Amino acid sequence: MLSTIHVPTELVSTIFGTISLLGALVSYSIYKIVKKIDENKITLCLIELSMLLALLFITKNKIVIIFGLIIINVSFEMWNVILENKIQKIVLEGIRATSISTINLFTSLLLTIGSFLISAMSKKISLELTIGILSGFGLFVSGFIFIFYMKKTEEK
Fold first, then answer.
1. CA-to-CA distance for 109 and 31, rounded, in angstroms?
2. Among 30, 74, 83, 89, which residue is least crowded by beta carbons within 10 Å?
3. Phi and psi for 93 in degrees, rounded to 5?
4. Which residues, at least 6 apart from 149, have a Cβ–Cβ distance to it below 8 Å?
5. Does the global pTM surpass 0.90?
6. How far apart are CA 27 and CA 24, in angstroms?
7. What is the 3-state secondary structure (H, E, C) of the chain?
8. Are 78 and 27 in contact (CB under 8 A)?
């Protein structure tokens, strides 16, 4: 996508290096943040922020897209650590490996379907618009499901 907005290869490498470094630092220190702020609130805010940034890809603004990619990837690392920790706590030990494998299978399936959708849609509309719409919609659904999960766990 960065090549479609004419971002030089050197900058793409720098961006992904920055994403990797920030992701590692944030995922390492997320537990310090969770001690101060409720992990459900953090996760929901990160999903909402990522959704907003993904939808802003339709502007085709280089700065917005680069900033959005960095923040979305770092946010993913943060909520991934939080959610994996939740899974470890709530899934029974005897079925934990199977549950995590099923989640990984479902995630791979969604990524595969997403790749096909991006390929098909980007032939008709711009790649930025395609990724903005699909990512925004996917994050909206994720946020909705997470709110449903939060309500269910509050009831217990």
1. 29
2. 89
3. -60, -40
4. none
5. no
6. 5
7. CHHHHCCCHHHHHHHHHHHHHHHHHHHHHHHHHHHHCCHHHHHHHHHHHHHHHHHHHHHCCHHHHHHHHHHHHHHHHHHHHHHHHHHHHHCCHHHHHHHHHHHHHHHHHHHHHHHHHHHHHCCCCCHHHHHHHHHHHHHHHHHHHHHHHHHHHHHC
8. yes
HSE value, Cβ hemisphere, 13 Å, CA-based, for 124: 5
Question: Residue written as tokens 């595969």?
Answer: 112
Token pair for 121: 């849609």
Residue whose C-alpha is closest to residue 132's, from 56, 68, 45: 56
Among all chains, which residue has been given the structure tokens 């459900």?
Answer: 40
Q: What is the pLDDT along the chain (156 residues), one digit of tens a residue?
A: 666 666 677 777 787 788 888 877 887 788 788 888 888 899 999 999 999 999 999 998 888 988 888 888 888 888 888 888 888 888 877 787 788 888 889 889 988 998 899 889 988 998 888 989 999 999 999 999 999 988 988 876
